[in-house]
Prior knowledge:
By secondary structure, this protein is of the alpha/beta class. The chain has three helices and twelve strands. The strands form four sheets. It has a four-stranded mixed β-sheet, with no helix packed on it. It has a three-stranded mixed β-sheet with strand order 3-2-7, with no helix packed on it. The longest helix is centred in the middle third of the chain and has 17 residues, at about 105-120. The model has no long low-confidence stretch (mean pLDDT about 95).
Amino acid sequence: MRKIAIVGGNIITPFQVFKEGIIVVENNRISSVGEKKEIPLPTGAEIITANEKYVVPGFIDLHVHGGGGFDTMDGSYEALQKIAAFHARFGTTALLPTTVTDSSQRIIHSLKAIDESIQRGTGSGEILGAHLEGPYISRQYRGAHRETAIREPSLAELIKFTGNGNNIIR
Length: 170
Protein backbone atom coordinates (compact mmCIF):
# COMPACT_ATOMS: atom_id res chain seq x y z
CA MET A 1 0.00 0.00 0.00
CA ARG A 2 1.49 3.33 -1.08
CA LYS A 3 1.35 6.03 1.59
CA ILE A 4 2.16 9.72 1.27
CA ALA A 5 2.09 12.36 4.00
CA ILE A 6 2.10 16.06 3.14
CA VAL A 7 3.19 17.83 6.30
CA GLY A 8 3.73 21.31 7.67
CA GLY A 9 1.72 23.40 5.24
CA ASN A 10 -1.34 25.57 5.61
CA ILE A 11 -3.98 23.14 4.39
CA ILE A 12 -7.07 24.83 3.02
CA THR A 13 -10.28 22.78 2.97
CA PRO A 14 -13.82 23.93 2.18
CA PHE A 15 -14.46 24.10 5.93
CA GLN A 16 -11.28 25.38 7.60
CA VAL A 17 -7.56 26.04 7.35
CA PHE A 18 -5.17 23.75 9.21
CA LYS A 19 -1.94 25.57 10.06
CA GLU A 20 0.95 23.15 10.37
CA GLY A 21 -1.36 20.54 8.90
CA ILE A 22 -1.00 17.05 7.56
CA ILE A 23 -2.66 15.20 4.70
CA VAL A 24 -2.32 11.44 4.59
CA VAL A 25 -2.85 9.73 1.23
CA GLU A 26 -3.19 5.95 1.02
CA ASN A 27 -3.56 4.24 -2.37
CA ASN A 28 -4.23 7.57 -4.11
CA ARG A 29 -7.05 8.51 -1.71
CA ILE A 30 -6.94 11.07 1.07
CA SER A 31 -7.43 9.16 4.32
CA SER A 32 -6.77 11.93 6.88
CA VAL A 33 -6.57 15.72 7.02
CA GLY A 34 -5.94 17.78 10.12
CA GLU A 35 -3.46 19.38 12.49
CA LYS A 36 -0.02 17.76 12.43
CA LYS A 37 -0.13 17.33 16.20
CA GLU A 38 -3.40 15.33 15.98
CA ILE A 39 -2.61 12.87 13.16
CA PRO A 40 0.34 10.49 13.43
CA LEU A 41 2.70 10.01 10.50
CA PRO A 42 1.95 6.64 8.92
CA THR A 43 4.76 4.11 9.04
CA GLY A 44 6.67 3.88 5.77
CA ALA A 45 5.02 6.93 4.21
CA GLU A 46 6.78 9.12 1.66
CA ILE A 47 7.01 12.53 3.34
CA ILE A 48 6.43 15.72 1.36
CA THR A 49 7.36 18.82 3.33
CA ALA A 50 5.12 21.82 2.69
CA ASN A 51 6.42 24.11 5.45
CA GLU A 52 4.66 27.46 5.35
CA LYS A 53 3.22 26.76 1.89
CA TYR A 54 -0.47 26.58 1.05
CA VAL A 55 -1.92 23.20 0.16
CA VAL A 56 -5.25 23.39 -1.65
CA PRO A 57 -7.49 20.95 -3.52
CA GLY A 58 -6.86 20.66 -7.25
CA PHE A 59 -8.73 23.11 -9.41
CA ILE A 60 -11.51 22.05 -11.79
CA ASP A 61 -11.75 24.15 -14.96
CA LEU A 62 -15.13 23.91 -16.68
CA HIS A 63 -14.17 25.90 -19.80
CA VAL A 64 -10.88 24.98 -21.49
CA HIS A 65 -10.35 25.69 -25.19
CA GLY A 66 -6.72 24.65 -25.15
CA GLY A 67 -3.27 25.06 -23.66
CA GLY A 68 0.39 24.49 -24.37
CA GLY A 69 -0.08 25.30 -28.06
CA PHE A 70 -2.94 22.81 -28.55
CA ASP A 71 -6.68 23.32 -29.05
CA THR A 72 -9.71 21.19 -28.20
CA MET A 73 -10.79 21.54 -31.82
CA ASP A 74 -7.57 19.81 -32.96
CA GLY A 75 -9.73 16.75 -32.31
CA SER A 76 -7.00 14.35 -31.23
CA TYR A 77 -6.21 12.35 -28.13
CA GLU A 78 -2.62 13.63 -28.28
CA ALA A 79 -3.73 17.29 -28.27
CA LEU A 80 -6.01 16.67 -25.28
CA GLN A 81 -3.16 14.94 -23.41
CA LYS A 82 -0.99 18.02 -23.96
CA ILE A 83 -3.80 20.38 -22.91
CA ALA A 84 -4.41 18.39 -19.71
CA ALA A 85 -0.69 18.28 -18.89
CA PHE A 86 -0.33 22.02 -19.49
CA HIS A 87 -3.19 22.85 -17.11
CA ALA A 88 -2.04 20.30 -14.49
CA ARG A 89 1.24 22.22 -14.18
CA PHE A 90 -0.77 25.12 -12.74
CA GLY A 91 -2.98 23.14 -10.35
CA THR A 92 -5.91 22.09 -12.55
CA THR A 93 -6.55 18.43 -11.77
CA ALA A 94 -9.77 18.06 -13.78
CA LEU A 95 -11.20 19.89 -16.77
CA LEU A 96 -13.85 20.10 -19.46
CA PRO A 97 -12.37 20.62 -22.93
CA THR A 98 -14.54 23.18 -24.71
CA THR A 99 -15.56 23.18 -28.36
CA VAL A 100 -16.29 26.27 -30.44
CA THR A 101 -19.00 27.00 -32.97
CA ASP A 102 -17.99 25.05 -36.08
CA SER A 103 -19.31 22.44 -38.52
CA SER A 104 -21.06 19.35 -37.17
CA GLN A 105 -18.21 17.20 -38.47
CA ARG A 106 -15.50 19.16 -36.63
CA ILE A 107 -17.50 19.26 -33.38
CA ILE A 108 -18.21 15.51 -33.54
CA HIS A 109 -14.53 14.84 -34.34
CA SER A 110 -13.52 16.80 -31.22
CA LEU A 111 -16.17 15.10 -29.05
CA LYS A 112 -14.88 11.68 -30.12
CA ALA A 113 -11.35 12.69 -29.10
CA ILE A 114 -12.67 13.91 -25.75
CA ASP A 115 -14.48 10.60 -25.26
CA GLU A 116 -11.29 8.69 -26.09
CA SER A 117 -9.38 10.81 -23.57
CA ILE A 118 -11.93 10.01 -20.87
CA GLN A 119 -11.67 6.30 -21.62
CA ARG A 120 -7.86 6.18 -21.84
CA GLY A 121 -6.96 8.88 -19.32
CA THR A 122 -4.39 11.57 -19.96
CA GLY A 123 -1.69 10.75 -17.43
CA SER A 124 -2.26 14.14 -15.79
CA GLY A 125 -5.42 16.27 -15.50
CA GLU A 126 -8.62 14.21 -15.64
CA ILE A 127 -11.06 14.99 -18.42
CA LEU A 128 -14.53 14.86 -16.88
CA GLY A 129 -16.59 15.42 -20.02
CA ALA A 130 -17.00 18.05 -22.69
CA HIS A 131 -18.25 21.62 -22.68
CA LEU A 132 -20.15 22.21 -25.90
CA GLU A 133 -19.98 25.95 -26.61
CA GLY A 134 -22.12 26.67 -29.62
CA PRO A 135 -23.14 26.24 -32.33
CA TYR A 136 -26.51 27.47 -31.02
CA ILE A 137 -25.53 30.86 -29.63
CA SER A 138 -26.53 34.49 -30.04
CA ARG A 139 -25.17 36.15 -33.16
CA GLN A 140 -25.20 39.47 -31.32
CA TYR A 141 -23.13 38.18 -28.37
CA ARG A 142 -21.02 35.62 -30.21
CA GLY A 143 -17.63 36.88 -28.97
CA ALA A 144 -14.88 35.08 -30.89
CA HIS A 145 -17.23 32.59 -32.58
CA ARG A 146 -17.54 32.79 -36.37
CA GLU A 147 -20.94 34.20 -37.24
CA THR A 148 -21.19 32.02 -40.35
CA ALA A 149 -21.03 28.84 -38.20
CA ILE A 150 -23.84 29.89 -35.82
CA ARG A 151 -27.14 28.18 -36.48
CA GLU A 152 -30.57 27.59 -35.04
CA PRO A 153 -30.90 24.71 -32.55
CA SER A 154 -31.38 21.32 -34.16
CA LEU A 155 -32.52 18.31 -32.15
CA ALA A 156 -31.25 15.97 -34.87
CA GLU A 157 -27.80 17.55 -34.74
CA LEU A 158 -27.74 17.56 -30.94
CA ILE A 159 -28.55 13.83 -30.96
CA LYS A 160 -25.56 13.33 -33.28
CA PHE A 161 -23.38 15.18 -30.77
CA THR A 162 -24.57 13.10 -27.81
CA GLY A 163 -25.57 9.83 -29.46
CA ASN A 164 -22.14 8.62 -30.51
CA GLY A 165 -20.89 7.69 -27.06
CA ASN A 166 -19.60 11.22 -26.61
CA ASN A 167 -19.36 12.73 -23.15
CA ILE A 168 -20.83 16.20 -23.20
CA ILE A 169 -21.76 15.65 -19.57
CA ARG A 170 -20.27 12.82 -17.56
